[in-house]
């Protein structure tokens, strides 16, 4: 025989458990902030650019998003930097080793979190190839904050995400090859381009 003593608490718990299912599966509630990766400027100061040859489905296959852009920027010294900006409501697909997806085939090692004087409070995830001639750097942005530890961010934010509408995460990713092996990151073309791209993103209304 079933007791009714716990009927009300059980009903409350079941109702709470249904909230994320209803929000994310049925209502598909999302927050749009009016910012778009595709608004990334074509030029930045001395950098001009041309679009990469990725097809439209490439970003959807990698990150589950159609809001992405990838361009090759070149400065007056003919140094080229590949810049990718993408947004996705599937956060894990963005923060879980984007260097493997965006620099496929390259053996990269994480050098840690670095900062630039132009953006001193923004954590930049930096990687280099074995021979130090290729560098990769990216930033992650969610809800107005730049993320230094995406795994910790996801863990601490997981409860709130269960009951709130989804917000997009933004990835701004830069890579440069054929760099002199001993050249410090701060002297590379990508270290000049990345702050410009971040400032342009923050300036979007």
Q: How would you sum up this structure, described in words?
A:
The protein contains six helices and eight strands. It has one domain (32-203). The chain is of the alpha+beta class and 205 residues long. The chain is globular and about 75 Å long.
- Give the total of beta strands: 8
Rg calc? 20 Å
Largest sheet geometry: 8 strands, antiparallel
How big a fraction of the residues is strand? Answer: 25-35%
User: How helical, in percent, are the residues?
Assistant: 25-40%
Structural class: alpha+beta
Task: Please count the helical segments.
Answer: 6
- First-residue to last-residue Cα separation: 61 Å
How many independent structural domains?
1
H/E element sequence: HEHEEHHEEEEHEH
Q: Whole-number average pLDDT?
A: 85
Uncertain residue segments: 13-28
Broad shape: globular
